[in-house]
Design goal:
Two copies of one chain form a homodimer. Chain A has one domain: Tetracycline Repressor, domain 2. The first copy, chain A, is elongated and about 60 Å long. The first copy, chain A, is built from eight helices and no strands. By secondary structure, chain A is mainly alpha-helical.
Chain lengths: 167, 167
């Protein structure tokens, strides 16, 4: 609460005028941070016609574009911090993860339909591999305070997309 | 502090008799949890002669063996929670990450020396890819409360080791 009062310059009463409870404020803050984050990661994707190149652009956005909200990935942070705590916040993170996975899986499915991606490819599998690698690399890169691990994983994912996903 | 008192059954005075400060206690708790965790992940590795199979056994340990300490991976948890907080705890997590990477990289280097692993392979790259994928999948699996993402990533990593790492 102290942090929020400092960040917003509002008094406690001013904050509670907008949000019923501290929990409600936390949920709104997560939803806002996630919306901003996913928007930044999906930036310029529509202008990339080929599905595999679109996945590679998504990865490049994740690796190269600084998060619009400070503190790294809101999903990773909330997943860890609400793991055995706030059940409602945990649920929001879970829905964010599923939404993100569906977005990537839909790109893969479109690629299969357009014969850009091998027919045997499982859209959800590709989505899981991309998200897991990027989130783990982000955790490592934040610990090391440099982007090396993210770049290593980007190269690996691009090679995987070229060798196992593209027709 | 309340949690620790409940978990240990000790009074505050009893805890401070063993640890100078709450910070010192947190550091010792992290070191203990990490030691237990890495031991479980390295279990039975020495009995696997081939280096690539040894990496696969490591991945299987990570995926299949339940963590000996509750709450998931101490490294992931501490990396996220100490990200912009406790600098000393953050440093311990960083050293844990580097030690883990060195352990995996050493297995790869041994494999190169023994001609089990392709000469052009970069040991640190393999280590980063394995750690990033597993940690990210663990975060996802803990959110979903099932092991599906971990199994998906295990399959992906095994395919990568067979196609790009083994000679």
């Amino acid at each position: 609460m102290q942090d929020i009062m400092q960040a917003t310059g509002l008094q406690k009463g001013g904050i509670y005028r907008h949000f019923g409870t501290k929990e409600e404020l936390a949920h709104e803050a997560f939803d806002y941070a996630w919306r901003e984050t996913i928007q930044a990661r999906l930036k310029n994707l529509d202008s990339v016609p080929n599905s595999v190149d679109r996945l590679k652009q998504f990865i490049a956005n994740f690796v190269e574009v600084r998060s619009p909200v400070p503190g790294g990935c809101p999903l990773l942070n909330t997943a860890v911090e609400a793991d055995d705590g706030n059940a409602v916040l945990r649920k929001r993170a879970l829905l964010a993860l599923r939404g993100w996975r569906n977005t990537l899986a839909a790109i893969v499915q479109k690629g299969i339909d357009r014969h850009e991606i091998a027919k045997a490819t499982q859209p959800e599998t590709v989505a899981t591999i991309v998200i897991a690698s990027l989130e783990g690399a982000l955790m490592m890169s934040r610990l090391e305070r440099n982007g090396d691990h993210l770049l290593t994983v980007q190269k690996h994912l691009n090679a995987y997309l070229e060798s196992s996903v593209r027709v």
